[in-house]
Amino acid sequence: MPNYSPNTQGLKENRGVKPSLNKKEYSIKLSPEKKADLEKIAQEFGFKHGGKGSLSALLEAISDDELMLVQTPPSRRRSPGQDNNTDIDGDEYGDELLKKRKRNYLKDN
C-alpha cells in the first residue's frame, strides 16, 4: 500500500535510524535466579531498559569505572537450625577467626 502522506521531514532529520554504537552481541549462561539478581542490581543503580534492569548497561558501567566492585568475605551458608556461631569452618576467613577465638579463650582462662 503506497504512502499517500508526502511528509518526509522525519527522514531528513534521521529520525527512526539507530545510531551505530560499534557494539557486538555476546552471550553468557546464567541461571534465571542469577539473571534476576543482576537485573535487580542494575535497576537499583539506575541502569534500566524496557522497564527492567539492563545487564549490558551494568557491565558497561563497571568496565568504564563508573561502578567500583569491592570483594567481601565469602558468604556463610547455614543449615536450617544452625547456630550463628557455628558458621566459621571451611574457609580461610573462618579458620583465622577460629584461631583468634581459641587464642582469646586460652588467654582468658
Report what the structure shows:
Residues 86-95 have a biased composition (Acidic residues). Residues 12-28 have a biased composition (Basic and acidic residues). The chain has a two-stranded antiparallel ribbon with strand order 1-2. The protein has a domain at 29-71. It has four helices and two strands. The protein is mostly helical. Helix content is 39%, strand content 4%. 4% of the residues are buried.
The amount of beta strand, in percent, is under 5%
Strands side by side in the biggest sheet: 1-2
How far apart lie the N and C ends?
93 Å
Number of strands: 2
**Global Rg:** 26 Å
Categorize the overall geometry: rod-shaped
The whole-number mean of residue pLDDT values reads 77
Low-confidence stretches: none
Q: Total number of helical segments?
A: 4
Biased composition (Acidic residues): 86-95
Biased composition (Basic and acidic residues): 12-28
Region (Disordered): 1-28, 70-109
Biased composition (Basic residues): 99-109
What's this entry about, in short?
This protein is mainly α and 109 residues long. It is built from 4 helices and 2 strands; from the N terminus they run ααββαα. The chain has a domain at 29-71.
Helix and strand arrangement:
Blueprint: H1 9-12, H2 32-44, E1 48-49, E2 52-53, H3 55-63, H4 92-108
Antiparallel strand pairs: 1-2
Quick tags:
109 residues, mainly alpha, 4% strand, rod-shaped
